Amino acid sequence: MKIRGGHTIEVYRATGGKDRHGDLIDGERELVGTIDHVVFQWGSTNPIDRAEEIDSMSTVIFCPRDAAIRLQARDRFKFNQETYAVIGDRSWDEDHPATGHNFDYYMVHVTVQG
Questions:
Q1: What angle do CA 8, 9, 11 make, to 5 degrees?
Q2: Mean pLDDT of all residues in 3-29
Q3: Contact between residue 92 and residue 108 where contact means Cβ atoms under 8 Å apart
Q4: Structure-derived torsion over alpha carbons of residues 66, 68, 70, 74, reported in degrees to the nearest 10
């Protein structure tokens, strides 16, 4: 089921290649396209030690599995004049192993890029 509405994000990917260890080199990024129907799930986690005065934000987004662009680790995207970084790999990017049901969306963790 495709979610009606949602948001459109602009996806940027590093063009610098890899270093001698095979890690991606951060640097220049180019626009690779947009993804429509993206859903943000904002959340916060409380600190373990209640004496702390800050909370941390843990944000995930859900993207359509049939989009032409698939987000991957270290991608950046723009939404509402903020730049976000993708943390880690996609989750739920497979059909259900027992029933074969396609959930239509995959999930990635993101953080605001300062």
A1: 145
A2: 81
A3: no
A4: -160
3-state secondary structure string across 10-66: EEEEECCCECCCCCECCCCEEEEEEEEEEEEECCEECCCCCCCCCCEECEEEEEECC
As given in the structure block, the two tokens for residue 46 are 């409380």
Asked if 57 and 75 count as a contact pair (C-beta separation under 8 A), the reply is no
Contacts of 94 (CB under 8 A, 6+ apart): none
The residues with which 60 forms a beta bridge, in sequence order, are 41, 109
Residue 5 to residue 95: CA distance in whole angstroms: 23
Domain positions in the chain: 7-112
Q: How many residues does the chain have?
A: 114
Task: For 7-112, give the CATH class.
Answer: mainly beta
pLDDT per residue over 32-81, tens digit each? 999 999 999 887 655 555 555 555 567 899 999 999 999 999 899 998 88
Please tell me whether residue 105 adopts helix, strand or coil conformation.
strand
Q: Which amino acid is at 85?
A: A
